[in-house]
Specification:
- With 398 residues, the protein is α/β, with parallel strands linked by helices.
- The chain is built from 16 helices and eleven strands.
- The strands form two sheets. It has a nine-stranded mixed β-sheet with strand order 3-2-1-4-6-7-8-10-11.
- The chain starts with 7 loop residues before the first helix and ends in a 9-residue tail after the last helix.
């Protein structure tokens, strides 16, 4: 029997916007905080050694690895899979439980973001923090300098750097970090791509690098995109995709950048999957250097679907047959497209899960969605827009 393992507790370093230190963004346990711990001491933490010991025995740690354990049960991809895919040289049998320098770094310097996604919060978005007057404390310059020093002294060991956010193209520390990252390292960027990229130093430096993976965070198009991602403009996203497309080349005459959509599956796209898939196909025309020629196997820009849990009002797990039947109909149409096996597996599991639900949505859930929609539409002065954009779901909020 194949043992379950994860390279992240040995190879990863994740620093959250509040300074918490872990080895991946899915890990439930923090091993210190940059405000009062060194990175070295956090990665030598006794709890982390316990987690490494558990994983060496062939099992994921029940507390720390809860999210990946659940993903495995639901037969979907996880953070564990991503870390293992980037560490094909990692040998769990020979790995010891002591400190090792991380080769994958994910720093969330602060929550600077231009967008107020309906499902986000002030912790991850400065735009939401401004709207709600809920400003989160940010690590001060001293701690940021400590992180930069750590990597300037050891940058030759880095293989992958993840730039997330907030919105990573707006975060100045990423511009400084790009000066430290060796040329052989890959940069994974998760961006909403709805800022003016021509004014971003981070964007300019990323274009000059050899290997960048662009993960564009989106799951709706047009007006529905703007409703879900308030303060962001759809036309700006289109313009920016074209700008990147003019730079991305394959064969890599100048660089070897990849592009994909990173998408959450929730109520606001559950009945609009097909229009998003069609856009993913049309968007290939923005990348003439990469997707050119009849022999190219890609039919659309890859979409990586992710499960969604919070807020509860948008999580389909909380709805009943009356809502889920609409989603099943849309998924069945979606599965008729030429899609990747991983997409097919994701949505086949969703159909199986949804068809097992026999009861209609509880009234309490309808009330929660009504409250959620009313609150957001009051903040953004777009009352009635949900009913207009999703008439098939309007019965939920009547």
């Amino acid at each position: 029997m194949t043992k379950t393992f994860c390279a992240a507790p040995w190879r990863g370093l994740h620093i959250q916007v509040d300074g918490g230190i872990s080895t991946c963004c899915a890990g439930k346990i923090k091993f210190g905080n940059i405000k009062n711990s060194t990175i070295e001491s956090a990665l030598s933490n006794e709890k982390l050694k316990e987690i490494r010991t558990t994983i060496k025995s062939g099992e994921l740690h029940k507390e720390h690895c809860e999210i990946c354990i659940l993903a495995s049960k639901n037969k979907i991809g996880s953070e564990k899979d991503w870390h293992n895919s980037l560490n094909d040289d990692f040998n769990i049998e020979t790995a010891n439980i002591d400190y090792q320098f991380p080769v994958i770094f994910d720093a969330r310097w602060n929550n600077t973001c231009n967008s107020a996604c309906t499902y986000c919060s002030s912790f991850f978005s400065s735009k939401w923090a401004s709207l709600l007057s809920e400003h989160e404390p940010k690590p001060v310059k001293h701690y940021k300098d400590e992180i930069k020093l750590f990597f300037s002294n050891n940058s030759d060991r880095l293989k992958t750097v993840a730039m997330v956010g907030g919105e990573p193209l707006l975060i100045n520390e990423n511009s400084d970090l790009l000066e430290l990252i060796p040329s052989h390292a890959t940069v994974d960027v998760i961006s909403n791509l709805s800022i003016d990229v021509t004014k971003s130093n981070v964007f300019e430096k990323l274009l000059s690098r050899k290997k960048v993976n662009w993960h564009v965070s989106m799951e709706n198009i047009g007006e529905r995109y703007e409703y879900v991602r308030q303060e962001s403009k759809w036309q700006r996203v289109l313009d920016n995709l074209k700008i990147i497309g003019n730079e991305v080349r394959n064969p890599p005459e100048k660089n070897d950048h990849e592009i994909q959509f990173l998408s959450l599956f929730h109520l606001f796209n559950s009945t609009r999957l097909c229009e998003f898939k069609e856009f993913a196909s049309e968007a290939m025309s923005f990348f003439p250097h990469k997707f050119k020629g009849k022999g190219h196997s890609n039919k659309n820009i890859e979409i990586v679907w992710q499960n969604f849990k919070n807020p509860a009002a948008l999580c389909l797990d909380n709805y009943g047959k009356d809502v889920l039947d609409l989603s099943i109909t849309e998924i069945e149409k979606y599965l008729l497209y030429d899609i990747l096996d991983v997409e097919k597996k994701f949505f086949q599991e969703k159909i199986k899960q949804f068809k097992a639900v026999k009861q209609n949505t509880p009234d309490a859930m309808f009330k929660e969605l009504k409250h959620f929609v009313k609150k957001n539409e009051t903040i953004f002065h777009n009352q009635g827009k949900f009913k207009e954009l999703w008439p098939e779901l309007s019965f939920i909020v009547n």
